[in-house]
Amino acid sequence: MPEIPLVPAHWRFPAHPTSVRRARQAVAESLPYGLHSRLGDDLGLLTSELVTNAIRHGACREDEDFIELVLWPADGHYWLAVSDPGTGKPELVRPETDSESGRGLILVDSLATAWTVRPRPTRGTSVIAGLPFRQFG
């Protein structure tokens, strides 16, 4: 008999800056008890960066649009997908030294084992990033 996978955690938040903290807290609270704190910190940072980018670059109307998060364990990783209604494709770029923004995907790239951008079947874009949990503990 095959092993039955866990049901992914799923949230929807308004495309508003206050949702970044709420999303980070929701992800942290969904992790199993006893999981090494570094995984929670790294997932929190990934969540903050991806949700911030989705709000800034993927949402059109903060009073109408939503950001969706899905978190699930698979293949020795915790995978986080952050989706927004936008059609743009986030790209990894190196900002100018004195730039005050533009480093979010650099952090994602350095933390995640793998990450990608995928169009959603109906509307929008998802950024998916994975953190290994086998390296902790």
TrEMBL record:
Q: Which domain of life is it from?
A: Bacteria
Instruction: Extract the signal peptide range.
Output: none
A Pfam entry, by short name: HATPase_c_2
GO MF annotation: an example: protein serine/threonine kinase activity
Domain Histidine kinase/HSP90-like ATPase, first and last residues per copy? 13-127
Q: Which UniProt keywords apply?
A: Kinase, Serine/threonine-protein kinase, Transferase
Name of the featured protein: Histidine kinase/HSP90-like ATPase domain-containing protein
Which lineage is the organism of this entry classified under, starting from the top rank? Answer: Bacteria, Bacillati, Actinomycetota, Actinomycetes, Kitasatosporales
